[in-house]
Write a structure and sequence with these properties.
The longest helix has 22 residues. The protein is globular, with a radius of gyration of 20 Å. The chain is 57% helix and 0% strand. It is an all-alpha fold and 218 residues long.
Length: 218
């Protein structure tokens, strides 16, 4: 897409319909033809970043959504994360573990998003939590997910991310380790400890069978 005086992005990575300051340097706006360049600064999206985007964008979007933001907010956060990866240039392209590099950038952009919105990560209202239609047992699954997301905020950040990527994105320990830059055994340890702590928090949160709810406590 050619940059004009009133850029309107048609790229799937960006949902901007109005001109933004970053549009002038957006790599997707500059990639008028399929990128074949491996360098940065020539006005063409580097092939390494284009390939990374194609492979990991959906995971990034699903992770952002799992942090309790809307679809549009997630699209914006992921777009800004990929823009930062473009600006990182060779620092990103030469990274030993590009998924871990990119995932850290995504989490940093998410942190900035929450700071700008002056709020902590939150759970979404029930109607927006899951795009899948509610079939038999669907509403129970949604309520359970709300409970889990509330409890995840009480866990250590890396432990919580391991559980999010496993429970909500259905990633294997090996895949999780790739995104978090840790070993598979470390992921397995986090999942084991996290499940135990999660069960304790959920037990404290959910009402007992007798109908008398236990008070939630940190």
């Amino acid at each position: 897409m050619t940059i004009t005086s009133e850029p309107v992005c048609s790229q799937p990575v960006c949902r901007h319909t109005d001109p933004e300051p970053d549009c002038r340097t957006c790599p997707w706006a500059l990639s008028v033809i399929p990128a074949i360049d491996t360098g940065v600064g020539a006005g063409i999206l580097p092939q390494g970043l284009a390939d990374f985007h194609d492979v990991h964008r959906v995971v990034f979007l699903r992770y952002a959504r799992s942090r309790g933001i809307s679809r549009d907010e997630a699209e914006d956060v992921v777009s800004r994360a990929f823009l930062q990866l473009y600006r990182a240039g060779e620092l990103f392209l030469s990274a030993n573990n590009r998924p871990a590099f990119g995932f850290k950038v995504l989490r940093d952009v998410l942190a900035d998003h929450f700071r700008a919105a002056d709020r902590r990560p939150r759970t979404l209202p029930l109607p927006a939590m899951d795009e899948r239609p509610a079939t038999d047992g669907g509403i129970s699954e949604l309520i359970c997910r709300l409970d889990v997301e509330k409890a995840l905020e009480l866990l250590p950040p890396q432990q919580a991310d391991c559980l999010r990527l496993h429970l909500f994105l259905d990633l294997s320990p090996t895949q999780i380790g790739l995104y978090l830059g840790i070993t598979r055994s470390t992921v397995s340890s986090h999942l084991s400890a996290g499940r135990q702590r999660l069960a304790e928090h959920l037990e404290n949160y959910r009402p007992s069978r007798s109908g008398r709810g236990k008070e939630q406590h940190a």
